[in-house]
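## retry 2 of 3
previous attempt timed out at serialization; input unchanged, resubmitting
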Amino acid sequence: MINLKIKFIPYEKTTGDNFGKLIKDLKKDTIILIDAKLSPAHEAELIKITMEHISEKFAGIELSSIEVMPEKGSASSKIRDFLFQITTGKKRGMTVIGPARIIRKIEKNPQELLVYV
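## retry succeeded, writing output
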């Protein structure tokens, strides 16, 4: 039986310096949820660091993000999302990262992620 853990992490804790901590948690069979969509540069950096840690005991990660899209035609919603991104530096959404040995598949559609463990 796998002891499944889920850890919620704020986007601000996902800088390159903290990726080592994320990898450490992932090696301990922890699924990580981040409160924003990771940028492509952050995703690439995380994958690069993960590749350096691949071993018989750690098969890698599964990663997927969704972005909250503003409602079509709603100017106020688009302005709010733009201001949110400018002031916080993050895109509205969510990222799921988990060990490949636990997460079998992540299905993604525009508004949700379905994670199979």
